[in-house]
Amino acid sequence: MKSAAQSELFRELPSVDELIRVPSIAALASSHGTAALTAAARAVLARVREEVASGLLDGAALRLALDGLGNAVEEHLRRALGHSLRPVINATGVILHTNLGRAPLAESALAHLCETAGQFSNLEFDVEAGERGKRDVHVDRLFRSLLNDGPTSTHVGTAASAVPPEPTLSERSEPKGRSPAEPNCVSTIVVNNNAAAVLLALNTLAEGGEVIVSRGELVEIGGSFRIPDVMAKSGATLREVGTTNRTRVTDYENAITERTRLLLRVHRSNFEITGFTEQASTAEMVALARDRGLPLMEDLGSGALVDLQNFGITGEPSVLDSLRAGVDVVTYSGDKLLGGPQAGLISGRADLVARMRSNSLFRALRVDKLTYAALEATLLAYVKRDHDSIPTLQMMRRTKEEIGKRAETLAAQIRSSKLNIEIIDGESVIGGGAAPSSVLPTCLLALSCDGLSADALAAQLRASDPPIIARVEQGRVLFDLRTVFADQDSMVAAALARIAQ
Ligand SMILES: *Cc1c(COP(=O)(O)O)cnc(C)c1O
What is the pLDDT of residue 167? Predict the structure, then answer.
């Protein structure tokens, strides 16, 4: 029920028509169009009406709101007609931050994307033969070169550094038990993300049968990716073996029946089991799979294409490590350690991958030209050994000293008596579920601002344009410049100077 006083207030509100005829507001139609202006005026008036109805506005407050209607309509238009998805500055020190879009793309990937996506392309056209082609060819050739027979190695280097190539898959000694008739060649297909890759692989290799997985690997990865749920959707039955902390190869062996289709290992991602633990080694799993004629699949999650030991990160096997060890099929993400666009990659035995390609699910999970363009350019950077052009790899390689120097330069740019700045030691994390126990030493800018709580300062930084996302810890805002592009340091300094005026 409206009170009499409220009815009075409602009468003071203009109609939508009256509002858009106010000259200063009517003028907005020329740049934004009448339809958008009308919609904005309607939305703003509805909000004021709601505030009156809920008793939030008394007479004086309503008059103030009415005076501000022009600004409110303009602000509404700016938001409605602007992009919602926009760049932010990541000062969290988490390199692969799922909430912040994971891997930023390399310049070459952006250029290739712009060049091919704004025009027609040979996505599925064989230009030479003049007939229909396959969209996979654009990246499969590069994966072959990186994982099979290429001149590249998993060593990290710049294009100029001459590191002798490691033996490639075709050169390595054949694991025992692999029959010579089996294809020795690794092929790769691309789907929408790694969750889709796992779904497609399980459905192709194990629908109607059983998949054996260790209880210690039945993980949930952020964004509700749960191995048991994906397994159920794939039509395969999960056969759990071992215990949370210990699973031996004999546990897998004892669970094999005529219904078994696949042995599966899952990277535990952002979760670790320490203490009294045991896990079957990859070599033991490979030997068991070969012996029983079953495929062995590994969901690597992050899936590095380079040896991360070069970054001081241990215990994170690369895609090539797994394939070399004899794993038949490996699934991994395109936008985690690989540093490319969102994608799910399935690399492995050509005969198994060919079965996945002809599964009708593959058609439903396939990726578009934007993804192929960005992925092709990213893979080319690996082939050319130009690792520093890939932002995620470059961020991992930044030294603490380098980051400390940038922090000092940034701190010197802000002259405000209200800001208290200290440079302290800290740790950056890789994120994206990779190497959960590996951290990278870094230098942090620790800030507090007189008259503002750390949370309020962080909120003001988020309200900057572009928004700046930093960590809040123990009453201070912490900036890790490892994940900030060097040309953004001055933007951070300017935002801080403005906030602490
Ligand atoms: C991240 C991750 C996934 C999910 O990958 P998306 O590309 O996000 O779909 C699956 N498995 C593991 C082990 C992961 O780390």
Answer: 45
Residue 302 Cα to ligand 1 middle (Å): 7
Domain 107-389 falls under CATH 3.40.640.10: yes
Q: Could you give the CA distance from residue 402 to residue 405 in angstroms, rounded to a whole number?
A: 5
Q: Does domain 395-499 have CATH number 3.40.50.150?
A: no
Does ligand 1 lie within 6 Å of residue 331's CB atom? no
Atom of ligand 1 nearest to the CA of 433: 15
Longest dimension (CA), the chain: 91
Would you state the structure tokens that stand for residue 368, as one six-digit string? 């578009």
pLDDT for res 416: 83
Q: Which residues make up the CATH 3.40.640.10 domain(s) of the chain?
A: 107-389
Residue 160 is predicted with a pLDDT of: 42
CA of 435 to the centre of ligand 1 (A): 13
Q: Out of 221, 267, 271, give the residue to mutate to test ligand 1, the one with the largest number of ligand atoms within 8 Å of its CB.
A: 221
- Is the preceding peptide bond at 436 cis, omega within 30 degrees of 0? no
Predicted structure pTM score: 0.88
CA–CA distances in Å: residue 250 to residues 25, 178, 253, 254: 76, 21, 5, 6
From the list 186, 188, 149, 187, the residue with the least C-alpha distance to 165 is: 149
Report whether 133 contacts 121 (CB < 8 A).
no
Residue whose pair of structure tokens reads 């009499």 in the numeric block:
4
Tokens of 6: 């409220």
Can you tell me which residue has the tokens 């749960």? Answer: 226
pLDDT at residue 184, rounded to an integer: 59
- CATH 3.90.1150.180 in the chain is located at 395-499
Question: Residue with the nearest Cα to atom 11 of ligand 1?
Answer: 301
| pLDDT at residue 224, as a whole number | 74
The enclosing H or E element of 393 equals helix 391-397
Query: Which of 434, 182, 173 is CA-nearest to residue 303?
Result: 434
The residue contributing the CA closest to ligand 1 atom 1 is: 301
> Mean pLDDT per segment of 10 residues, for the chain of length 501 residues?
79 92 92 94 94 87 89 92 95 95 97 96 96 94 84 46 44 42 75 97 98 90 82 95 90 97 89 78 96 97 88 84 96 96 97 97 97 98 96 96 97 90 95 76 96 96 96 96 97 94 85
Q: Which two tokens stand for residue 463?
A: 């309200």
Element (H, E) at 325: helix 319-325
